[in-house]
Amino acid sequence: MLIYQFYYDFTNGGRGFSTKADDQSIFGERNRQIVTNSISANYAFNPYNSLALSFETVIGTL
Fold it and tell me: Is residue 28 packed enough to be buried (19+ CB in 10 Å), middle (13-18) or exposed (0-12)?
């Protein structure tokens, strides 16, 4: 069995820590895009032996 999955996520206006200057924390606002591709495969040679493979890539931008 072979399974392919695609996932796309866009987050608008997320806030998070950026840096620290003069003992004060600076926070920023950002738009994030995340793309995830994954593929998995299962193969049964016989009832006692099988092989399972899984691969995933995650690409994200800030």
Answer: exposed
Longest dimension (CA), the chain: 65
Q: What is the mean pLDDT of residues 6-27?
A: 86
Write out 29-50 in H/E/C secondary structure. EEEEEEEEEEEEEEEEEECCEE
Q: In this predicted model, what pLDDT tens digit does every residue of 21-42 receive, in sequence order?
A: 888 888 888 888 999 999 999 9
| Joined tokens for residue 42 | 């299962």
Q: Which residues pair with 17 in a beta bridge?
A: 27
**Residues 46, 54, 10, 12, CA torsion sign:** positive
